Amino acid sequence: MSPRFATIALSAAEAADGVLPLGPLRAGASQGGGWLAGSGTIRVELPSRQSEVEGEGGEKTAERTLEATLSGAGPLFGESAQSPALAAWYADAGLSDGGAVLLRRTGHASARLSPTAARFRFIDLFAGIGGFRLGFEAAGGECVFSSEIDADACDTYEANFGDRPHGDITQISAADVPEHDLILGGFPCQAFSIIGKRRGFEDTRGTLFFDVARLIKHHRPAAAVLENVKQFRTHDGGRTCATVVRTLEELGYTVHVTVLNALNYGVAQRRERTFIIALRSDLDGANEFQWPAPYPERADLAEILEPDDAVAPKLWGTEYIRAKRLARLAEQGKEPLRPSIWHENKGGHIGQHPYSCALRANASHSYLLVNGERRPTGRELLRLQGFPDEYRIAVSHRALRKQCGNSVAVPVIAELAAAVTRVAL
């Protein structure tokens, strides 16, 4: 399985001719591998700032599409890549020598292209294993600072990015953080100690969001992209989220908040998370931000799963666990489905779906069972979060389970990176 998106560098000559070379997401990835390999036709959406029209329900849709045949001889689109429509899209997107395009798979036979802004700098707070970093690097960004306190997560991050995150952000002065254009982070949502007093910035003291806010206040980046659990919007009757939004507004930012489900953006996992986009209010595009549209197709679980004979024996459920799950499924009057991932809720109900329920950092070992029989492998867990196959596993399986449960879904972040950079940079 190959990355779900890739950064594509264009030379002036290639842009002029309308030729689209497909490059790897990161160094070492196989060019044209996986779903980009071989001959075949994929449908490419050509979004254009100048070509959007109102569709049914008022949503924005792209007027133009291009049918492009993938060349089996190398990572190039075939003859239809010389299309005037594609060349016109390059011009609309303002692409020039050294520009980049973001390619993301949206289905079995479709992909989405987005122009990216000029290279930009970002900082990666509460960095985990780098899900935010992967998404924003794919949009042309350079990470100039990262922070993480979990040692195992730092080991994984260093193994994949070559630099080790700084430690506790609460102990780092804002002046010691490099200048940057974007600030990123999934800040932990511990209880806000004095929330609801309507004191804005002061209400966030004692929380890790306060450290995000003090960096924003000091550096004045163009935008902040923040993530939290779905329930963040309704925590404490909505007062927690309201305090965060009010604080960002008082710092001079226009704030957009919604819940996105990773299942709609190319991963086989139902994972709903709150996202907060804060755009500096003096920017022309501060009020023009649009949330990324869901993909037309869902990811295929069969592409995620490894062969059973390649799975370590320790990951197989005991006969007792497997028999218990089968018995409860029978009590529900259901037959086993394959491929599927089974989830048992607190009431004992067995759900089996062609996708995973949300990965959790502290879930039981048998929280999710592939086909009701075994636990997901480390590679499968990473794939369920949209990490490319060249991403290195550098820690124990137990540590990786926790890391994947805490991570963001990379394709969702890639979509947000394209949407944010389009209006902020």
TrEMBL record:
<dbReference type="InterPro" id="IPR050750">
    <property type="entry name" value="C5-MTase"/>
</dbReference>
<dbReference type="InterPro" id="IPR031303">
    <property type="entry name" value="C5_meth_CS"/>
</dbReference>
<comment type="similarity">
    <text>Belongs to the class I-like SAM-binding methyltransferase superfamily. C5-methyltransferase family.</text>
</comment>
<keyword id="KW-0489">Methyltransferase</keyword>
<protein>
    <recommendedName>
        <fullName>Cytosine-specific methyltransferase</fullName>
        <ecNumber>2.1.1.37</ecNumber>
    </recommendedName>
</protein>
<dbReference type="InterPro" id="IPR001525">
    <property type="entry name" value="C5_MeTfrase"/>
</dbReference>
<feature type="active site">
    <location>
        <position position="189"/>
    </location>
</feature>
<keyword id="KW-0949">S-adenosyl-L-methionine</keyword>
<keyword id="KW-0680">Restriction system</keyword>
<dbReference type="Pfam" id="PF00145">
    <property type="entry name" value="DNA_methylase"/>
</dbReference>
<dbReference type="InterPro" id="IPR029063">
    <property type="entry name" value="SAM-dependent_MTases_sf"/>
</dbReference>
<dbReference type="InterPro" id="IPR018117">
    <property type="entry name" value="C5_DNA_meth_AS"/>
</dbReference>
<keyword id="KW-0808">Transferase</keyword>
